[in-house]
Amino acid sequence: MTRSIYEQLNEYDTVAKQRFVETFSGDALDTNRWSSHGSGSATMSDTVNGGLLLTSPTNGAQHLDFSPSDAGKIRPFSQTGAVMIVTSKMVQAQYTNQSNGFKTNYYTEAGKYVIMAIQGQTNGNSSDNKIMLKSNNPSTSVDTSIASSAIHDLHTYKLELLSSSSTLSVDGALSSTGFATGNCNPDNRCQPHLTLQTAEGTISGGAKANTYCEVYNT
Amino acid sequence: MAFPSVYEMFVEDLTTVRKQHFWEYFSGATLNSRWTQTNSGGAGTYTMADEVDGGLLITTPTSINTQQNMDFGDKRNFSPTGSVFIAVVKSSWTNVYNDFGFTNTQPNAQSAIFRWTSHNSDGKIHLLTCGSGITEDVATSVSGNATDWSNIKIECKSSSVEGSINGVLERTHSTQIPTSDTKLQPYVGIYNTVGSAKTCQIRYMECYNT
């Protein structure tokens, strides 16, 4: 029986590419790995399968990435060959948007990104809820057909950056429901970027939970 | 095959008590705090590289005869007679002594490491092992090319040390190997032999007792 993680994930005679696995378990977020930006919070949840609870500030956003500063950006993932697998859910969705994905720049800059995004309820209309593949290079927004009520449940999202396109699958879907594809890529190397932000109005912070995040170059 | 747990990926079943095992992805904003960093002769840097597949970048000062090490701060959990070290690494090669592997306290005593250095006139990566006395230092067939990443594996067995690079068993040492009464920790070290900054990178490490 193979005894190493290395040989479970790679052929023995190959040189493994960059990878990390984050299980969001413990008494606090691993701040060696993650930089948390914003006046909200990133705390470990005291609930079964709670993982990390990311809470936005009032009328603002909370971000997690690898970059403690603009000058100190850490972006080890390829814009044309990388995968993010993440489990997450909306905890408090109304008037909030969440996303998990890849971004080229510091959190204060638009940069280029490809993300899985959930647009939470706006104006209390649950039909506004959508799980989608989004990018700004070029502008892309492809909805999955996941039921709007599903955003409050934990799902496994797989976002893949390919050579000239990107795909999103929800809970292993390879086509149709729970799948989206777009001809979009970031234009530079990337870091993982998890965020929750308020969408409109003066509301107290929304919240999302993440229980797992794995990212690797392909 | 789907495994019910990470634990069961590596043992036959739950009746087997798993031994010490860790793995490190060197991904994130900064180096994980499990590592102890030691600077000798000047302060180097230990930063995550802003490059695709860059992992951790260790950079020496620009002065000669400086040394940067990282290890477990003499918390030595690994057996000299039954352990494995796996890493994906790269070295700037020229005018450095750059070591990756197991050691008790330092590479010149009780150790099993791969060494990158242009001071070896053969231009090859060496497997270097040491017991309580003399070091055995023998070339592999692999060039110490500064642009290449390598997958290295060192296995300490009951009466030998095996060193593999990129999946090929390169060297087996059966003398001058860590003695059974010692204990080992993972080690990365870079010694600068010239007056300009030198670097090494590492993007994966895994160590476990067998």
Q: What structural category arises from helix and sheet content of chain B? A: mainly beta
CATH architecture of chain B: Sandwich
Number of domains of chain B: 1
Radius of gyration of chain B, in Å, reads 17 Å
CATH topology heading of chain A: Jelly Rolls
The fraction of residues assigned to DSSP E strands of chain A is 35-45%
CATH topology of chain B, which one?
Jelly Rolls
How much helix, percentage-wise, in residues of chain B? under 10%
Reported for the largest beta sheet of chain B, the result is: 8 strands, antiparallel
CA gyration radius of chain A, whole angstroms: 17 Å
The H-and-E topology of chain B, N to C, reads as: HEEEEEEEEEEEEEEE
Work out the number of β strands of chain A. Answer: 15
- Tell me the β content of chain B: over 45%
- Overall spatial form of chain A: globular
Determine the number of helices of chain B (DSSP H or I, runs of at least 4 residues). Answer: 1
Greatest interface and its residue counts?
A-B, 39 and 35 residues
Euclidean distance between termini CA atoms of chain A: 25 Å
Count of beta strands of chain B:
15
